Amino acid sequence: MAKYGRTKQFAGEIEMVDTSVWACANQGCKCWIREDYSFAENPLCPICESSMVREVRSLPEIQG
Ligand SMILES: [Zn+2]
Predict the structure, then answer these.
(1) What is the mean pLDDT of residues 9-22?
(2) Ligand 1 centroid to 22 CA: how many Å?
(3) Ligand 1 mean position to 48 CA, how many Å?
(4) How far apart are the first and last CA of the chain?
(5) Do the beta carbons of residue 50 and residue 63 sit within 8 Å?
(6) How far is the CA of 37 from the centre of ligand 1 (A)?
(7) I want to staple 32 with a disulfide (CB 3.0 to 4.6 A). Which of 1, 23, 54, 55 is the partner?
(8) In three state form, how does the secondary structure of the chain look?
(9) How close is the Cα of 9 to the center of ligand 1, in Å?
(10) With 60 as the cut, is the pLDDT of residue 10 above it?
């Protein structure tokens, strides 16, 4: 079951879902990953190895 709220917004034909992500804390780095794709409790950025902060973004829903 999803542990985040599924507040659905419609942008064209793409369904946007509020998704928990890890975003790189380094302001010069735009890297982020979906929390569902990370198995570490406190992941490091795969690009610059900075710590990452948890936030919620509206992202296109993944099918399947
Ligand atoms: Zn980074």
Answers:
(1) 82
(2) 10
(3) 4
(4) 14
(5) no
(6) 16
(7) 23
(8) CCCCCCCCEEECCEEEEEEEEEEECCCCCCCEEEHHHCCCCCCECCCCCCEEEEEEEEEECCCC
(9) 29
(10) no
Instruction: Say what the pTM is.
Output: 0.70
Q: Which residues line ion ligand 1, judged by CB < 5 Å?
A: 24, 26, 29, 31, 45, 47-48, 50
How long a stretch of residues is the chain? 64
Residue 14 confidence class, pLDDT cut points 50, 70, 90 = confident
Between vectors from CA 13 to CA 3 and to CA 10, what angle results, nearest 5°? 50
Task: Label residue 26 exposed, middle or buried (CB < 10 Å: 0-12, 13-18, 19+).
Answer: middle
Given this model, what pLDDT does residue 15 score? 87
